[in-house]
Amino acid sequence: MDVLSDVLRAVRLTGALFFDVDAGTPWVGESPSTATIAATMMPEAEHVISFHAVISGACWVALTDGSMPPERLDAGDVAIFPSGLENVMSSERGARGRVNMALYYNPMDGHLPFRLMRGGDGADRTRFVCGYLGCDTRPFNPLLTALPPMLCVRKPARMEAWVTDLFRLALEEGGSGRIGGEAILARLSELMFVEVLRQHVEALPEDSRGWLSGLRDPQVGAALQLIHAFPAENWTLERLAQRVAMSRSRFAARFSHYVNVSPIQYLARWRMQLAARQLEAPSASIAQVAAGVGYDSEAAFNRAFKRQVGAPPGVWRRARVGQAWRDRWDSFTLVTPNSCSTQSA
Fold this sequence. Notes:
With about 350 residues, the chain is an alpha+beta fold. The protein has helices spanning about 5-10, 35-40, 165-175, 180-205, 210-215, 220-230, 235-245, 250-260, 265-280, 285-290, 300-310, 315-330, and strands at about 15-25, 25-30, 45-55, 60-65, 70-75, 80, 85-90, 115-120, 125-135, 150-155, 340-345. The termini are far apart.
């Protein structure tokens, strides 16, 4: 079982590429927090992650709150903001601009990505693409808490074809007007996210902690694979420890060291994530969902779901169906942009 892929499927990772920017020096562009634009850009997503990928040239990227130092991005590098925080990209380190909220809308009568040319008339130009990744946060998304607020990954020297190269090729093809271009770019955004995560995990220090480091640990990673491959199995601490060839106490301590919760707590939370997805199917009864995630008793499942999620499964289902209809209705709202958020410095 590929645990990372399983999580990305369960939290419904969905990509979209919105902006293709050609900027000449001097330039600066600020992006708002995704919380302020999510309802317009990706109305059906619970949480929105933003990203920038440099196709050519170079620039600086930083969080606008200054919580992390600015980083230089060269051609092929990618910056991802898992928490969706406000950020700034610029030709000069430390430059600041302003956010133009009119740019952030989901077109009903146009095509993505928007092609933008902004900044000064300097000879040094930077081309980069900006997009978003939607995902669920509830009941349980172990990935988001395992990532830093800003994640910058360099193009691997050993790779001839990296995700930014695929973006460039897809954008060139998109200029020919062939159908399906937006779907290709959306899937490439998702592929980019997975590749960045893989590079990030491989670069983690040996003594690092967290869910992603746990995937790399032989014993903890094996236990996570068992939980994700057989979530309805009657797992106990003893059974999991035995399967990964560790004592009960050493396994419990090692798992908690990396994942920050006990194996049984993790199992319970992951079951609720799977159950929440299954509850969205109108044909599935609560009893069927309970059995599908390992509960023999519907009453026991109801108690566990309420304890983990904060509401009984029936209430959760009604709320989610109602929200889905509201999101679809709100997505019909059209906002017309009048300028670009990348300004001359």
